Amino acid sequence: MKKGIFHTIVSYLLIVIGCAIAAFSIGAILIPNLILDGGINGVSIMLGQVTKIRTSIYIVLLNIPFLLLGYKTLGKEFVFKALFAMVTFSGILYFTEGLDIGISDKLLATIYGGMLLGFGVGLVIRYGGCLDGTEIAAIILSKKTSFSVGQVVLICNVFIYTTAGFLFGFDRALYSLLTYFITFKVIDFVSEGLEQGKAVLIVTNQSAQVANHIYERLGRTVTSLEGKGLINGETMILYCVITRLELTELRNIVNSDDIQAFVTVMDVSEIIGSHIKKKPEIG
Prior knowledge:
Layout: H1 2-30, H2 39-51, H3 55-74, H4 76-96, H5 106-126, H6 133-144, H7 149-168, H8 170-192, E1 197-204, H9 207-218, E2 223-229, E3 233-243, H10 247-254, E4 261-268
Antiparallel strand pairs: 1-3, 1-4, 2-3
Helix pairs in contact: 1-4, 1-5, 2-3, 2-7, 3-4, 3-6, 5-8, 6-7, 7-8, 9-10
C-alpha cells in the first residue's frame, strides 16, 4: 500500500517537473521567437499572438472539450492525470510566457526549444499525463477510421503550420515544423527511455549453451521454438526480450568463438509484465 502511494506521489511530481520544463521552453524560447508547437498548443500560440490574450488561457479552454470527449473512451484515471498536467502546464506557462532569456537566434531557439519541450512532454507522457487534446482526439478517431494516431496528429499539424505560414510567414512555419520533429524524437526517447525493449531471434544449434549464457550474464530467460532450415534442417530458434543497454552484451555472447548463431534484432514498442524470471531447467 505504502509503495503504491509513494509511486503515485513520485509520478505526479515528475509530471509537474515535465510541465515546468515544457512551459519554460514554450514561454521563454518558442513564443518570443514566434515558433509554434504542434496541436492545441500551436493553435493556442497563434490565437495568443492574434488576440493578445495569454496562450496559457487558450490552452486550458481549448483542451476541455477533448478531455470531456476522452472521458468515456480513455478512462477516468487518464483524463484526471491529463487535466492535472494541462492545468499545471498552463499555470506555469502563465508566468514564463514572454520571459526574455536572451535567445534571439531562430535556429538556436528551434533546436534547444524543441529539445527542452520534448524532454518535458516526454516526462509527462512517461508518467501517465498528457498536454495536448489533439492526441486524445487522434486516439478516438483512429478507432473509428483507417487512420493511425500518428497520421491524425500529423494531418492536424500540417494544417496548423500551413495556417501559421499565412499568418506569420512561411519561414516561421518551417522553423516550427523543425521544432516539431526535434520534439517528437526527444519525446520518443524520454517516454521509452534507455529501457526500450529489443526483441531478439537467435537461430542456433547450441540453444542450451546460448540460453544459459543469456541467463547468467543478462538475467533473462528465453523461449525456445523449433525451426527447420532449407539447408541445415532441424534447428532451434530462441526468442528473448532485452533492453538496448543489454544489446552489446548479447552481441558478445553470440560472437564468442564457441557459439554459432544467426541473430535478428527488432524494436519493441511496449513490454507488459515481467520478462526477468527464475532460471529454467535447460536440458
